[in-house]
Design goal:
There is one protein chain. With about 220 residues, this protein is α+β, with helices and mostly antiparallel strands. It has one domain (about 1-215): Glutaredoxin (3-Layer(aba) Sandwich). Helix content is about 55%, strand content about 15%. The chain contains nine helices and six strands, in the order E-H-E-E-H-H-E-H-H-H-H-H-E-E-H. The strands form two sheets. A four-stranded mixed β-sheet has the order 2-1-5-6. The longest helix has 18 residues, at about 70-85. The radius of gyration is 17 Å and the shape is globular.
């Protein structure tokens, strides 16, 4: 079995990050016991200047990308179909919002030390995209934290402080220095990069190729 480091640069607000991860999961399952993947997540804020109150998601995307309501609907449909194929459910609502995700990243940094980072990341994806929960509400965010077995009181103390804020900022600066400008980006063995919410077959082929290179270099 080959050990493989997979670092995922991602934002909770990014639907392609959810799709990409689920397709990576499918690829790893298809490869069976061939790869022992060590998965970790790195912070990337799509909207670092967004207010805590957030903005209507449709309105935000139309403004950001200059698209029409019809184009927005078509994008949602495409994402929903690709999500379904990957095993993830998107329930886009007209009152869905885009938020500043900095506190989510602080909690994810804390959760890494508890061995629950991936569990929390997936729970946040589900809360935001499937259940249409408001992750800018502290109690809602703490409910998600508790749902994966993390301590609610400790998480509340993190939110009430600036704990892990510097770590998140430093991590984001490091990602930018590495030239990462979009998410998701999957960094394999600190050497290879796979960009975007790729299909499972693309991940599988790439991982097999990297695995072969690992084996031949030993």
């Amino acid at each position: 079995m080959n050990k493989m480091s997979i670092e995922i640069v991602s934002d909770v607000m990014c639907p392609w990050c959810a799709i990409g991860y689920k397709n990576l999961e499918i690829a790893l399952q298809a490869l069976g016991n061939d790869i022992d993947a060590d998965i970790s997540w790195h912070a990337f804020e799509l909207n670092p200047d967004m207010s805590v109150a957030g903005q209507n998601l449709r309105e935000h995307l139309m403004e950001k990308y200059g698209i029409t309501p019809e184009q927005s609907d078509a994008n949602r449909e495409r994402i929903s179909v690709m999500g379904e194929q990957a095993g993830f459910t998107f329930n886009f609502a007209d009152d869905g919002i885009m938020i500043n995700s900095f506190d989510c990243h602080r909690l994810l940094t804390w959760a890494k030390g508890q061995g629950k980072q991936t569990d929390l990341k997936l729970a946040l994806f589900q809360a935001h995209f499937t259940d249409n929960k408001r992750l800018n509400d502290a109690e809602t965010l703490l409910d998600v934290v508790a749902s994966v077995g993390l301590d609610r009181a400790t998480a509340a103390a993190v939110l009430d402080s600036d704990e892990f804020a510097q770590e998140v900022r430093d991590e984001q600066r490091r990602m930018h220095r590495m030239g990462i400008q979009s998410v998701p980006t999957f960094i394999i063995n600190q050497k290879y990069a796979i960009n975007g919410g790729q299909p499972a077959d693309v991940f599988k082929e790439a991982l097999q190729q990297i695995q072969q290179e690992q084996t031949s270099s030993v």
